[in-house]
Amino acid sequence: MTTNIPNDLTITPNDRIAIEDLMKKYCYFFDRNMPKELSELFAIDAVVDYGPEVDNLNGQDQIFEMVSKGLSTTFTATSHHISNFLILSADAETATSSCYLYAWHRYRNKSEIGHLWGGYQSEFKRTKSGWVIKSLRLYAVSTIDFHRDTMHSINRN
For 124-142, what is each residue's pLDDT tens digit? Predict the structure, then answer.
């Protein structure tokens, strides 16, 4: 993933909005327990990396299965907040982005609320029907009572 932030990208304002909206819809569908709609934001062959404790999810079907299971057996409520959205690279057919994340989790099996501060690194591709998420990688800066002990780092210099 690109680490330098370019000044001049080959992307239209409408494409930028569409790409950012994919991430907002991801949060919206997750928090409203809508795993089918969430999985349809991804490319058929997408890869999701939620961290070293979890095998990568490969394709819409695995994304749907994992998110469905988590929403029905692990969480009673979630609230995902993204900010600082940046397009890091882009051309007419692909783009990469980074955004910050605060995620709040109420669990079914414990009384503590889980907190995660971190972000998503994502890749997108254009399809005939519009932009989709090609890959998504979750990283953490800090957690409190979160359901995972090991997360990807932000790779801070």
Answer: 999 999 999 999 999 999 9
Residue 69 Cα to chain centre, angstroms: 17
Cα–Cα–Cα angle for 48, 28, 142, nearest 5°?
60
Residue 97 tokens, joined: 């982005």
- Region for residue 127 given its phi and psi (left: phi exceeds 0; alpha: psi -120 to 50; beta: otherwise): beta
pTM surpassing 0.85? yes
- Report CA-CA distances (Å) from 56 to 10, 40, 60: 30, 17, 12
CATH tag for 13-144 (out of 3.10.450.50, 3.20.20.220, 3.90.1010.10, 2.60.40.10) = 3.10.450.50
Q: How far apart are CA 6 and CA 46, in angstroms?
A: 25
Residue-range domain boundaries for the chain: 13-144
At residue 102, what is the residue type? Y
CB 66 within 8 A of CB 81: no
